[in-house]
């Protein structure tokens, strides 16, 4: 019976059809916030730390790498994260003091850093009160 349950939850591609608890990478931390991009995820813990996993091909994980990660990876900077958002291939967070950071695919100016960048990370502005990432904006 147990094998039947497992086969209905996870298909041959590794896709999960039912909610499964996240058991690796973020032990002993309470998750306060979740943001889902096209194929990457970000979480913020109760102690305002940020983790990410999924496709990193455009730097959207914020780890300094363009590699994929199949388990949550700690994002070392910025810290004191209040809010987080994810778009198609980009991410954003709001930190204590009102600074907003953006990273990932910069095409079309979606990072708010001008159109000269292709992929990257940087400080967007001060005095921001909330965040939102659209699919491509």
Automatic annotation (TrEMBL):
Record flagged with keyword Cytoplasm: no
PROSITE patterns in the record: RCC1_2 (PS00626), RCC1_3 (PS50012)
Superkingdom classification of source: Eukaryota
Species in which this protein is naturally found: Cladocopium goreaui
Keyword line: Receptor, Repeat
RCC repeat feature ranges: 48-97
Protein name (Swiss-Prot/TrEMBL): Ultraviolet-B receptor UVR8 (Protein UV-B RESISTANCE 8) (RCC1 domain-containing protein UVR8)
Pfam families the record matches: RCC1
InterPro entries with a match to the protein in the record: RCC1/BLIP-II, Reg_chr_condens, Ub_ligase/GEF_domain
Record's keyword annotation contains Transferase: no
């Amino acid at each position: 019976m147990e094998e039947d349950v497992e086969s209905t939850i996870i298909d041959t591609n590794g896709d999960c059809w039912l909610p499964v608890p996240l058991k690796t990478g973020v032990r002993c931390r309470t998750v306060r916030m979740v943001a889902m991009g096209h194929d990457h995820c970000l979480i913020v813990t109760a102690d305002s730390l940020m983790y990410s996993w999924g496709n990193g091909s455009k730097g959207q994980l914020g780890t300094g790498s363009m590699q994929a990660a199949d388990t949550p990876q700690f994002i070392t900077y910025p810290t004191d994260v209040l809010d987080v958002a994810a778009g198609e291939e980009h991410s954003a967070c709001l930190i204590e003091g009102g600074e907003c950071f953006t990273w990932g695919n910069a095409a079309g100016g979606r990072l708010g850093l001008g159109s000269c960048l292709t992929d990257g990370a940087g400080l967007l502005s001060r005095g921001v009160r909330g965040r939102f990432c659209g699919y491509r904006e």
